[in-house]
Amino acid sequence: MQNKKTETLPVVPLRGLVVLPGELLHFDAGRDKTIEALQAAVENGSLIFMTSQRDPHKNEIEFNDIYDRGTICKIRQLLRLPGDSYRVLVEGISRGRIYGFAAETPYYQAEVVDFEETPYERMLAEALMRRLRERFSEYSSLSGRISSDVLSDAEEIADANELADFVAQHAIQKLSDKQSVLECEDTLKRLELVLEYVSHEVDIRKIDRNIAQRIHKQMNKNQREYYLREQVKAIRTELGDTQADDSDEYRERMAKKNLPADVQEKLKKEIDRLAMLPSGSHEAPMARAYIECVLDLPWTESSTDNLDVVNAVKILDEDHFGMEKVKKRIVEHLAVAKLTNSVNGQIICFVGPPGVGKTSITKSIAKAMGREFVRMSLGGIRDEAEIRGHRRTYIGAMPGRVITAMRQAGKVNPLILFDEIDKMGSDYRGDPASAMLEVLDSAQNHEFRDHFLEIPYDLSNVMFITTANSEEGIPRPLLDRMEVIYVDSYLENEKVQIALRHLLPKQMKKNGLSKSKFVIPESLLAEIIRSYTSESGVRELERVLASLCRKAAVEIAEGKAKVRLTRQKLYEYLGQPKYRVDPADEEPAIGMVNGLAWTCAGGDTLTVEATSVKGTGQLSLTGHLGDVMQESARAAMTYVRAHAGDYGLDPDFYSKCDVHVHVPEGAVPKDGPSAGITIATAIVSAVTGIPVKAKLAMTGEITLRGRVLPIGGLREKLLAAVRAGIRTVIIPKKNRTDLSDVPDCAKDHLKIIFAEDFSDVLKNALCGLPKKMQSGGRGEWQGIDGSYLDKLTGTVLS
Predict the structure, then answer these.
(1) Could you count the other beta carbons within 10 Å of the beta carbon of residue 2?
(2) Known catalytic residue at 674
(3) Percent of the chain whose predicted confidence (pLDDT) is above 90
(4) HSE, side-chain direction, 13 A CA sphere, residue 665
(5) Among 489, 536, 674, 685, which one carries the catalytic annotation?
């Protein structure tokens, strides 16, 4: 093409339309600038420049939002419509290009260069025109939208430029293709371009016809699927249905993911089913949830385990003080994995009182091994579906917590923590503990089946760690599948070190304090632990330290340069001590014996008091005692009655007196069989009048035959004895092996006596040996050395 002339014309941007030279076009105009431009064109010769917007959805446009190539048109008709809009009829005159913009208000004006057609090779053009007429005629027969008059007009057009534009305006549907034809300046290239587009439309129409007639022989399978999907996509887009797009997206994700063959087959069926569902189907959300769950789950993705034993020990020691059993077990696991070059899933249960670091050390284990960490609390779970998931027949169904945890981890070998596994319950909806049997069984969990997933899922590479405060709440079959590691309560010196290394720096940083501004002497930490905390762990200790830091922060904020904690300031900050350790009695006492108890907060001492009064043989038990402890008291009383003669008592002494056994702190519930020998000793002392040695404590279960049975919690009980100032402790002989778990510092402070029979207890607990009363009614009893002692004073009689 050659430049003809340049003139300034109003510019009308078209949305979704392209007008070609020779084309008559109707459209409605409603934008203010468009109406102004049309009115100005009518007043000045009816010529106007029309070009398309690049984005038809934009209402407010700039110069760079429109194409610089368009058509110079003549306005044939301009009608005003209701609502301040106009209906316009224009005729395309010639191609034009914007040379430069002249004005933006009140309407767009531009310097437009008009082009005239250039000469072309007639023979080549004639060949292309014949081919184009043939394809146009073929298109007309396939589409059914082109009238015979239009075909006749196409046959009569002799000019190549006119024929190309004429066919383009009737056969080309896409806006971008029409714009390409408009912008093509060379006549022969334009003919080829239109021929290509028309041929493409003819091919698509043929495919449409073949689909309707179910003829597949002339089509390649891949090409047919491509065109089918394009058509379905276009239809669903027009209907506002996005499920086809979702299905394609899911197929792409499935192709990128390395899935097992059976999973891939199942997933493909679900995606195809989703694509076939009608828009708005109530099954579509559930199908999407299932597909996304399968695609989000890790099937082959794994993290590389860090098997460096030295690095693991370093990380565990940095994060936690003590807990040697746990650290030793993890180091053993890494060492075996390194030597065998194989990492198997482990199932370990940490059992211990609250606050001793069971959960936090699990995080450190995951960090040391380089595994993803996911925590799942099981406390209060009563529904089996929480573990196995809901079947998809239910509305709102979702996968169980195990599959959800794997989905969250994103790896097939994470470390999953089941916290508070002893707090699970059960009701009419099922028993979640039974569902956990498959999860925590290394022989079964390689094919774990979730009700929602319905596909076997491999959990054999997962390292499972569970935590519990007590074994009693864990069903035996479940406990049998786990390796139990007992996490002991902290010693006082361990709590001091934990406070110095971890808790205090953490709270000082949290409260904006530095080491130079707030100082707590190490000697005061022990007093804080004894006087303001009563726990096995360090949670309460951390809260106390946080309170001290906050109060120190107030003083520093008020202008004080440094705060050093003293005993006086400690009482000022925290008040008087909340906990006091009752010291053991300094003198022997009748009917009063120190017992040892285990609680969730660690060990403790308790006093058992017994007294004998005139009565009819009643046994009274007070002090909020549980059923097991009451049974122990009755067994102890029966034993004493059966051996009354050994203690210098009438065989029917019980018929003339009542025995009252009381355990102080009656508001605190107490239970367990380990107070058996303590209660029996108190009863013997009360009915015989023989004092019990001072600074002595005991623990052990008694039988009707007087045998002393082993008890649990020995470590905590002996530590409590040390805190209370006890010097001698009587324990069952069968607990001798448990002393290996007791710290040396505790064993050094105590004289430990082993008892196999209740007679062993009395020999070491009473100030003398009971003996039948001598004739004459002497008010004495025989001491261990054979001398007679006064019952009340314990002095030797001549």
Answers:
(1) 9
(2) yes
(3) 9
(4) 9
(5) 674
